[in-house]
Amino acid sequence: MNPAAPGGGGSRRAAPSARVRAWARAVVTRGSRREWAADAALWLALCVPVVVAYIAGPPREGPPPLSPYLGVPLLALAVLVSRAMPLLSLYVAVALALTSTPELFSGSASPALLATGYLVGRRMRQAQPAFLSFVLIAAFGLLAMWREGEQLWTWFTLVLTLVFNVALPWLVGRYARQRAELVAAGWELAERMEREQRLTADRVRLRERSRIAGDMHDSLGHELSLLALRAGALEVAPDLDAHHRTAAEELRAAAVTATETLHDIIGVLREGDGAAGGGQPNDRLTGVDIADLVDRAAASGLRVSLSREGEPVELPPMVDRALYRVVQESLTNAAKHAPGSAVAVWLRQTPEATDVSVVNELPVGDPLPGRTSGGIGLIGLRERVRLAGGLMYNGPAMAPDSRFAGGYEVRARLPHAPGDGTALHDAEDGHDSGHGHDAEHGHDAEHGHEGGLGNGLGLGNDAGQVLDDAAPVPSESALRRELAQRRARRRLWQVFVVPLALTAGLAVVMGVFSLFQSSESVLPLEGYDRLRVGQSEREVSDRLPAMQTDEQPSEDTTPALPGSRCRYYRIDDDPDPAYIYRLCFARGELVSKDTVRTDS
């Protein structure tokens, strides 16, 4: 059979080999030289305590140091697999520590446990595999100590080491991972919001231009209709020559055609405006000027005053509507974002231009409830002023009146002759900065949102969205931020509370076990006297207590016979005994029995 043929044995043998190569590449691959350097530095840092402890020699008390001939290669393996398989890295560190002591607590291996435990929490998304690994390590340690005849206190030490040297760094790593994900999600959301804000600004400009086109239709269409009417009157005039009558007829027909064409074009624009802006009506009420607007706002409860300078002049329609919208939008925003504050409207008119300024005091109350539209009102207003040839500024108040220090101001200059308008402080670069009450009052990102003062203030719905009494619906980003913050707080709580709870629970278990061991490891004097050297270990074991004491002989005690195994029992239930019994066995029989001094 051809080994390369489909279904042949060669392809089946090649599959495991390919998986092994892919696994090896995943293990050794690093994203950059910086990662290689970081891993090399970590490996060197973990090797230092191993080498230093080995050079210093075995301690007087405690487990022997790790051999660098075993520790250095295993630490290199642990660091090498820590990115692709962090849990395997932890297993290597635990195995390295167990070669030194079954208690898992080793001065030379503890840094490796701390580092790998942290990396497991930092680099693994799922918590269940790590948690199960901790349980398995504790269970394996208990089984190994039972088989080796170790005392239960050794297992308690292993569990404490597992909690503080592995589980606690793991929780810290998970908290660091959660915090990094929260920061990354915040920047991603900010970038998305910035893109959406640019799209919204462009959409608002287009909508404002369509509204202005509607204003042009209202004014220019009216003039064209009058022109057609006058041409029709000339057409039927009895004293007009035939060729003049023909010219008048052509003029009337052209005016009617122009009116119909203008109506069709503006109709299309208004359809698009209705889709984007909710089909809002024309924002200028016929026969209502600035004074009427201010009077209606004052009658509705707004503390507003109007000051005029100069003689009133007849304004071009574009300028008139832009002026009206500046005052209307500014009063809307002041009522919404600075309720209870005084508002002043300054209007100065000259034959060349009209200057208007609307300024409010520093807010004394919280903003009114209701949905916001992201500050697009000022974007559209700035576009309207610009297309009218004017200049506009919105930001901290610059009014000379000290009452308004710290307040907010919207100022516009509208020339009566066409001009090229730009914002006073914000260049038209394709998107608006949107400085507003966010900086001065701590409210939304702009001073205004496209919301009207509401029917209660007498301005109707023409300024945009009407305030409602419904509770604001939290945005998706706010819900996601709240969820992420709740998860981060839970992780931080776990970092401190879980280890303390485990330690407290283990301390209770150890205390109960200590009391139980104290009573169950006492060998009465008469029982001790009945034991004879040479008795079989089975016969002696039947007469001994169920448990041994954890007390050990002092260092100056005569050592036991070579090759023997010794057991220790209490003389009485004294919690700090000065003497204990020592029974040593060899070749299946009791070879020695004596009383030895303890370190207590």
Q: Estimate what percentage of residues fall within beta strands.
A: 5-15%
Helicity range of the residues? Answer: 40-55%
The CATH superfamily of the largest domain is known as Histidine kinase-like ATPase, C-terminal domain
Number of strands: 8
- Label the overall shape: elongated
What is the mean predicted local confidence, pLDDT? 75
Q: Helix and strand string, N-terminal first?
A: HHHHHHHHHEHEEHEEHHHHEEE
Structural class category: alpha+beta
User: In terms of per-residue confidence, which ranges show pLDDT below 50 for 5 or more consecutive residues?
Assistant: 1-7, 274-287, 368-374, 420-471
Q: What is the CATH class name of the largest domain?
A: Alpha Beta
User: Main sheet: which strands, in order across?
Assistant: 1-2-3-5-4
Q: Domains counted in the coordinates: how many?
A: 4
Distance separating the two termini: 78 Å
Region (Disordered): 416-457, 537-565
Keywords: ATP-binding, Kinase, Membrane, Nucleotide-binding, Phosphoprotein, Transferase, Transmembrane, Transmembrane helix, Two-component regulatory system
GO molecular function: ATP binding; phosphorelay sensor kinase activity; protein dimerization activity
Domain Signal transduction histidine kinase subgroup 3 dimerisation and phosphoacceptor: 208-272
